[in-house]
Specification:
Order of helices and strands: HEEHHEEHHHHEHHEEEE
Strand content: 5-15%
Shape: globular
Helix content: 40-55%
Largest sheet: 4 strands, antiparallel
Strand order of the largest sheet: 8-7-6-9
Distance between the termini: 88 Å
Length: 289
């Protein structure tokens, strides 16, 4: 036999009467609770909240407002290397623009270990086409030197349309595709060749669990710069800013937190938005720390 949990029936009505004093006290309690809640909410709003640490990034400040370019770390490093190799070969800025437009189309300025058929590297050069061995082509300094060695053999490469010059080097299936990258390539070239000073700013967050800045490996940084640039001495203001841009692009790799040149300084600080003036850095040496 099933048990009835609720037995239907008639319920008597119970009348509960509260005095006016009890009602008044209850109302006061409710008002006080609301007031305390509102006060705590407003107080918490005024307490500074911890800010999320932004991810690593680089930005190129263009000379024309609104034309700034955002780069990831690898793109900034590839751009810095290409400019340094061009400076070592004493090539004009136009050569750098052509190289950037080509790399932007081929790999978006990244050193890829794969590609169409046996194409690899930042310029997607092919071992089977005589550009070099795969290991060599994966070295951005080597790959860039090979690109420029071919470019300077193109007749009137400084004056002919960019797409035509790039296609003479690359021999790709769609040479027309290089042209749309020309404007961005010009902004990059102005910054990384040093023609526009203080143009590159990067931020590198600390590694997970890192409590102190890394020990800067300045000697190693200068050795690697010399691979691309040759003599790292500052022989002109423009060359100094090229070295400064290269140093900022590679700061995370070599543990640099400060780069100074020409009375300005870059610091790896999340709140920083670019180079600051008033530094004692001279014009004869790029200071790294």
């Amino acid at each position: 036999m099933a048990t009835e949990l609720i037995r239907p029936g008639r319920f008597s009505r119970v009348r509960v009467r509260f005095s006016r004093g009890v009602i008044t006290i209850a109302a006061i309690v409710v008002v006080l609770a609301v007031a305390i809640s509102v006060g705590l909410y407003n107080l918490l709003k005024k307490v500074p909240q911890p800010l999320a640490i932004p991810e690593a990034y680089c930005v190129v400040r263009a000379s024309t407002p609104g034309d700034d370019l955002s780069l990831d770390i690898e793109q900034a490093q590839m751009a810095a290397t290409i400019a340094a190799v061009a400076a070592r070969r004493r090539l004009p800025e136009r050569a750098v623009v052509i190289a950037y437009a080509t790399a932007l189309q081929e790999t978006k300025l990244r050193n890829l270990a794969y590609g169409d058929l046996d194409s690899v590297g930042v310029f997607q050069q092919r071992e089977s086409q005589g550009w070099g061995r795969k290991k060599q082509l994966m070295d951005p300094v080597y790959a860039t030197n090979r690109f420029f060695a071919a470019l300077v053999k193109v007749k009137n490469y400084r004056k002919i349309p960019l797409a035509d010059a790039a296609q003479e080097v690359q021999r790709s299936a769609g040479g027309y595709a290089y042209a749309p990258h020309e404007d961005n390539a010009k902004i990059l070239a102005a910054a990384f060749t040093g023609r526009v000073p203080r143009a590159l700013h990067c931020w590198y967050p600390p590694a997970k669990g890192q409590t102190a800045p890394p020990k800067p490996r300045t000697a190693e940084a200068r050795r690697q710069l010399a691979r691309a640039l040759g003599d790292p001495a500052v022989t002109s203001t423009r060359r100094g800013w090229l070295i400064a841009a290269w140093s900022v692009a590679y700061a995370q790799k070599y543990g640099l937190t400060r780069v100074g040149f020409g009375g300005a300084v870059w610091k790896n600080e999340a709140k920083a938005e670019g180079w600051t003036t008033g530094d004692k850095s001279g014009a004869t040496r790029v200071e790294l720390s």
